[in-house]
Fold these 2 entries.
Entry 1:
Amino acid sequence: MIIRALLLVAIAAIGYLVFLRRNRLPFHIVIMFGMLALGAGAVLAPESLLDDVAHVFGVGRGVDLITYIVEAAGLFVLLHYYTKFVELQRQLTTVTRELAILRAEVDAARAPDDRGPKPEA
Amino acid sequence: MIAAFNEAKVIRAVVTEVAAEGWPVVVVDDGSRDDTAAAARVAGVTVLRHVVNLGQGAALQTGIDFALRRGARAIVTFDADGQHSVEDLPSLTAALATADIALGSRFLGKEVQGATRRRKAMLRAATAVSNRLSGMELTDAHCGLRAFRRTAAPSLRITQDRMAHASELLHKIKTSGLRVVEVPVTVKYTAHSMAKGQGGLQAIRILFDYFFRSS
């Protein structure tokens, strides 16, 4: 079935775009706008036309084709924002760490007799 | 170096005991909701505080970074819940004479005090999984009592903020070719430390973090 092959290719492309080509192109924005355009097109297009397009891809009904596309696009957006979340968490860690160290250094500078790790530790 | 989260009840006694033996102590309060930082400060040691809770891995790395900036030649990580024994510190640091990193082991001769059979079985299962993931053969993969030389620190940089850092460390030890030795240590489980231990379900999260949040 053509659609199965297409969906597998789409999933592979998602993996490639999300994990290997991260941050190079704003694909997530393109895909979100594409979904909006697709949604508007699906509403405006006559049902028979959608069915005809679906048949080209080996899918029985136009509505099924839309479902497949939305699922693949949704998966991409989900994974994209997950990787973004992990990246933000890493940045939060860096900032929190630097703040903690900076405060300790300021405290130590104010109190010269502060007990910290000595070089011979 | 002691990473602590919500340990106000025990942290003062733990750091006082370690500091009393002459070890320079750095406590990293990982965004505790209780008075952990204040309790540790009372003991007169250096306290760093994360303004938000990040996880044990992140707290350890913060302490390591701070100790390195202050010129530490070796770093020891010590649990905040009172399960480790300060008497083990000399043998752990002495092992660094011939190794880059010394890992404490609860199952290398000394007794595991107070642990239930279920806890021991879980620890052994976790060790088996970690050994499989890291390609190492250790008797105890998740003991928080470790020591390493300053020169080993860059190779051991922790990127796993939460509990998966233990497996991450083993993987990094293996791939960096650092000389590692296991040192027998005594671990005393108390009701407090048992309550703070990792449950079986936490293992799923740790595995998820290990595989999907690695850098």
Entry 2:
Amino acid sequence: MRGHENKLFLLFVVSAIALGIAGSSMLPADRALTADASRLISIESLPDLGEMCLWEPISAKPVVPSADNNLFAAFEDKPVYAASQETVATADVARPPIRNILDTDPIYSAVTVDTRLNEVYLQDPNTWSIRIFNRLDNTPANAARTEPKRVIGGPKTDVQFNSCVYVDPKNGDIYSVENDIGDSIVVFKNDANGDAEPIRKLNVTHRAYAMAVDEENDEFYLSVQYPPQVAVYRKLASGNEPPKRLIQGESTRLSDSHGIAIDAKNKLLFVNNWGNISDYRIPGSGRFEAPSITVYRLDASGDAPPVRVIQGAKTQLNWPGAMAVDPDRQELYVANDVGQALVVFRETDKGDVQPVRVIKGPNTGLSYPTGIFVDTKNKELWATNLGNSSATVYPLTAAGNVVPVRTIRSAPKGKVSLRFGKTQAVAYDSKREEILVPN
Amino acid sequence: MHGFAYDAIHDEIVVSSPLTQAILIFRGGAGGEEAPVRVIQGPHTQILGTAEGGNDKVSVDAVNNEILLPVGTGVSRQNRTPITDNGVLVFARDVNGDVAPKRILSGPDTLIRSVAAVAADPVHDRLVVNSGNALLIFNRAASGNAKPLAVIQGPKSGVANISSFQVYPEKGWIIGGGSDGSICAWSINDNGDVPPRWKIPVQKLTGYVASGIALDPVHKEIILSAAGQRVRPPSGIMNSVITFSWPEIF
């Protein structure tokens, strides 16, 4: 999943003419409002739920779905109520919505592979769930989708705005990074299924995006979008345990940080940055920089400058998402979201360099790839695609407009996802009769 | 992004960029990676994005050629130390670059307590701010530490605090969030603990709690966006854009 709160340039425009992608309905003319329609006057004392962006407390009580309150059931006939402005009383308008735009299929933001059990974990921020498949699943061309072996999701899981997934290679524990208001990392047992409670939860800084684990030292590295930083935690940290150290400050050249990867063998840390930067304590200090990958020593701390920076037009970096390292080949793999590509650099690259390999083109099945995983055991490269509800697999050394060796699809072939990641705002373009939705 | 605006008069899209302390103005028909036509950014702007919020929503008064930008301390859960006063920066709509705001509405008397959604009603010459669970109504050109002319607040009012609200000046409505997950219409002339004149019980009808609001007066519709962050919808699908017919308010 792309990080939130800074998605400015891609407005998902939905033509009003094409409304009704899913769950749509129109009121028949004979149900139109009439001036003498029945009235229901409702004056209620209402609880205070606070600002919308605030974290949802556990005590909040969701509406239990029923025929009366479920969106899809609500398309049945309902009375319409009216009142004049002069009544100084509330008139309930209880008619159902006439249209609903939503994507009923998953969108996949991140991927990891459990090579011990040959299972693939895909993060879906559209349904706030983790979907688990067999590693060798390959959706046939004529099949609508491959069903997951199991799904971890539901209110007890605390999975929300999930942007990264990691499976412990020793014990199979599943780590999920909760972006946006999730502000946490939740950990599940390897066999978790359904609405399972996490076995551990670590509260982390707002806007955490991705994690990379140093299994040798039992530490994990967490990238935080803003204020940009890398927080290093004890691997088994939970509750409000603070990070062991932070990499943060102007010298670090971190800026709207997203993907993170480590090479424990060569003691290197890689972070990619979207280039949106400011000091939140200083008005008017904001600026735009080119996307970059900053490289640090694995033991870096504080306002440490990078040992190398990959940045410039030749790099093709464009909203880089997840990253992964192959320490044996000493290569760095990047899911280059808006670049519609997977790009590969040498770990030793610096400056304005071209990738050593690029996987891109119509045969690749890539569509807004944000997740990536290097399976060194099986010599495979995995990507997840926000744009078409799929995960695609390539040989580790693939390049160019290559056909994936396998694809796990969760929607019919050719599906173009809405890519709804967080539809918090909306505007209406009356000139073009279009709905504008940022993500 | 928690709130942005389409300027129908000048055919422009106005968005805020929280992490770069900027306001970006795009062509109305912009697509792809098209650059903004104007960028308001720099030390003179006094724009502040805070560590965990702030500068996350923006509004436009196309009639009076002004851009309204709420600033403040945001919704910090880990550090509630105020970095700056809460308030509203008002810029000329057509400025570009490092330009100072035309006026600033901020101070204890304003009762603005958060990074509040804001909208202008050029017909009634009012500025409305949704701060906390209150709608603060000012003279449109109010500046400094001005007191609101009216405050709609209280249990009967049901006013909630959501990411955005709209005004419909032609009929004098303020259309915002109710604290039971509804979308409500109050009168711009209301004051005190006044119940909304109209209410769509959106959560009850759909399972979603709306955070974004847009109006389509031509088709007499209200368009809502919801992202699952308040209440998990029964459909299990977190992101949705829902349209209601609401001819009564247009």
